[in-house]
Amino acid sequence: MNHDVIKKLEILADAAKYDVSCSSSGASRAAKRGAVGNAVSWGVCHSYTADGRCISLLKTLLSNHCRYDCAYCVNRRGNDIPRASFTVRELAELTIEFYRRNYIEGLFLSSGVLRNPDYTMERLVGVARELRNEYRFNGYVHLKTIPGASEELVHEAGLYADRLSVNLEIPTEANLKALAPEKDHQSVYKPMNYIYRNIAASAEERRKFRSAPRFAPAGQSTQLIIGASRETDRDILSLAASLYDQPKLKRVYYSGFVPVNAYDDRLPPLASAPLARENRLYQADWLMRFYDFAAEEITDGESPDLDLELDPKLAWALRHPEWFPVDVNRDDYHRLLRVPGVGTRSAGLMVMARRRGRLQAGHLAKMGVVMKRAVHFITCDGPRAATINEIGPARLRALVLGGGKKYDPRQLRLPFL
Amino acid sequence: MNLFVYDKTFDGLLSVIFEAFRLKLFPDALRGPADDLPLLAGRVVRVETEAEKAGRVWRGLQNRLSRPALRSLMNAWLTVADEAADELIVRYARRIFAGGDEADFSDPDVLAIREQSQKVAREKMHLIQFVRFQKTAEGIFFASVAPRYDVLPLVLRHFTGRFGDQQWIIRDLARGYGFYYDLTRAREVRPDGQADLAAGRLEAGLPAEDEILFQEAWKKYFQAVSIESRANPKLQRQYMPRRFWPLLIEKQ
Ligand code: SF4
Prior knowledge:
By secondary structure, chain A is α/β, with parallel strands linked by helices.
């Protein structure tokens, strides 16, 4: 360890920071004797950045040298920026020492493309190999798969990593080709499907033999860049839904395009990253994964894009007054989930509590229902407010938005849906 | 107003519950032995802590409560020093023994037990998140914490599981004790005679050779991943309350 490595870390962590898929949840590893580390299924944030994001993993590139020239990327070949590369040994040591101090849950590693995909992938795998075999590291590892790397390397990566990801980046192939001529969707879908088959096979094996090796036990994920190309939210969400369905991705991450390389006129002129849109997409994704919403329902409005002023669940509810009011004392869990202001937790509590007595507005607030929102969509015992059908969707919308508070995307948190 | 005085231990509180049922008289307020009694206290009952009585009440609760509910009650007890959770527990126990339902969240006390328990669970989580070890020259990983409640014992399993192959010490600065894990088990240690426990931070000269470099690397990493143009200190504080900052290397 020396100051040189710290310099590299500064460059390479900075280069990796716009990649958002930094969550360590979904993996569970029991502690082993003589080894260091475990992974807990809910993921742990060890710190929070000045902008309030969770720091869970050491997220860095192995190298920001790259032989490709993707229009949307700071690390593209043509850019004149400080470049650095870790050696396998340096990065493995940094990871284990951070971990032992309880700074991090593990490592999230990606890289620019060095000489060729295999040469690069071999180094990424090398870091994981050294961590697992030499340091007996039992914490979380997420490896990026370099498109075009050989199946042997992807396979070895899956044996060490908890999660693998291959980034689609640009949602449609035509737009990808325009912005990154050296890439195509085939080089992403191939490893994605290969990983999918291996995960399924390993799960099957482990049903028979508990000792069969695990392959990427926390599954695989991908990332989409939002706003560098012209896809609509409808396109993006239906792509995400199909990825959850078939290669069974655990997560799709949406990364609002941070305007870089403004000199490149293939990119849309953007003043800043489309954060509000990114947030709405995450909320929509949340609805698909936990609230039984289909992609088509979320974008069944007139516009193919999400409403930036309203969270997608409220927006959906305003388009569907025929669903309401929901009777909190009678309707089932899935209907309760559709009520704006009701979350999975409060819906669960309501179902439990009403077995013992009728629910009133006061009870709901205590269970965490955001009553300000929910009142217009439910009926319960006691005094009640005017429902959406009495007020009318358009007026209710104005009412909700008229709160006077200026829209601030940073204030949006997911669980309030 | 009925006032019960007890020794502020958990067994003491269970004894209070026992006495309350025996006397058919329930406390409106509880006080510790050193507390001043209000001038207008009505009846004052001084309860002796007795293992036998406490045991009977505890078994009674075990019979009536599910394991999660029992754990919630234990968690709620940990907030007693700060939030008069003892009075809440007595009301809750009274209700449970009268046949009340542990999951009837329309009852304010049932809900309050759950909420207190969640506060403890959050504090426990904060320790798991924000403990920062520093490696000493002897190779021991050392951390100081100051949690709001006495939750250090609740995280031992987590830390022995995760850091089973390294020696560590975690010290609770607020309560003046800690745990030392010697590669076999975590033992409680009190500061008397423990030179390395007496100082909240490691003295200069004590850290391992590379320690300062790794701290520096971590600070630089922390700065590198922040997106300054999106700074949102309110959100940062909401997730990482300011009271933890003095012990976080990256916030120094
Ligand atoms: S291959 Fe990756 S690192 Fe290289 S320019 Fe493209 S996006 Fe950037």
